[in-house]
Amino acid sequence: MAENKPPAAPSNEAMKARIISHMNKDHTYELSHYLRAFNGLSASAARSPQLTDLTLDSMTIKSASGSHVVRISPPMGALSDARVRMIEMAQGAQKKLGLSDIRISEFKPPAGPGVASFVGVALYFFCATTLGLVEPDTPAWSALDVVFPFGAWGYKWLVKAIFVPVLVIHITEAWWIARTRLAKHGIEEGSKLWLLWVADTFIEGAPAMWRFDALVEAERKRRQSAKH
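RE: above sequence
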């Protein structure tokens, strides 16, 4: 009767290949953070990262800006330590970069009061862009003289008077969500998702930020409930 032998331990090369494959498949987000936090790369320079080599004291990561060596300090005792060390480095990188471990990967369109805000501001910008069509002896002028409380002249004056304040406020709100929320929660600058949130906030204003915060809070609660 043949003796049952325990399976042989994987070789270092096989283990390294498995770790590299796993990191490139599921953890490119963390690889980018390593480059930014420990090698000082910008977000754009750290894009499209791929782990190409791993030793006990370093990782070689290729990104949009070339190949970079990220030091592992102190060195690992064995490649079997890689999982724990990668998690520790990811947490350290998040803290150094001021990022959250909660990632948002969806866009939620306006709802409730947000719809009214979106429609109202969109309507104002429509009025501002078509203001040149409102001239005496035109149908638009005649209609505004009848329906607008201050007549057509009052309409033109009001649309012009609030244009700069409205534009400044909404540019500021779009800048603010990008600065304080999108990057922090893993939305890459210039991506489709980033553009959706920035454009929506430019039109809708604060309700878009409240909706984004609600997504973050929902994910936080989901994680907390999963622990119990």
